[in-house]
Amino acid sequence: MNKASNHHKSFTIISWLNFAVGLSMLGWQSFVGPLAYSFQLGYFTLMLLLTGIPHGGLDHVIARTTAIAFNRKFNMFIFLSRYIAIIGIYSVCWFFFPSISLLIFLVISAWHFGETDIECPKQKILVSFCRFLWGSFVLLLILLMHQTETTEVLLRISKNSTPVIVTWNFCKQNSAYILTTLFIINISMLSIARLQHQIEITLAKFLNLLLILIISVFLPLLPAFALYFGGWHAIRSFELIYNYLNLKGSLVGRNPMRMWTKSLPMSALAGLFFAAGFYLWNENNITWDPLPLSFIFLSIITLPHLDVMDQMIRKNPETNK
Hints:
Number of domains: 1
Number of strands: 0
Oligomer: single chain
Distance between the termini: 18 Å
Largest sheet: none
């Protein structure tokens, strides 16, 4: 077995280890008692620091590699300026147009989750539809199975927007119907796409994902989201990035640990941005609650990250294999 195969195996091992951690939390909750909020917050923070934020810390490396592959010039200053400008504009939008910003966040999150979860060798309309539907199911599953906690977050970040309240109440009242319908449609569409060889679903990976999602249903919102986002989505993204950088001959992508280390400087900048947001949050006498601030922060850094990942996956579908 060569080094590349060993490295691919390491991603699988890590994702199954995260499943084991989720199972342990579920076992503690079932037989010992509720997870302490300090533990929930600690686990959420740890997953953000280890994988959640770092998986976007290689965007500049990906962008440079893509530019070189297509014989285009890459300017780090221009890339960072554009990246920061997107973050700044979206931040302002959250302040003045929270409802629209929330909608944007939900849509891009659904697409981003589906794009990394669903493997495909070719980009077609059916594949794109499958990816968005699957990402929507995952996102709604996590939100609708934690209605009390999600309601508080949505009300806070949307500033009690009437359209948001009405839409969310409808979703809560019809949650079983919505989730069941989405699941059936997803399984049907994914089966059709797989039979037509438009997607490649590795059953072991899909089982890993389903088990993580099932566990997340029974955990509180913070660890549930951290388990999927940091324990599956970020690991899957790292694997896609590793495949891509190796395909293009990048030195950064030769070893997963080296790749993760290279993500830390940009991750540290993101951490400083979060600290600044926390400071402003407190300075404006907003009651401390890590959930709204955390999800706004994630939405702000996700938008430019999505653009980089989307270009990588769409222009280089070999990375999905």
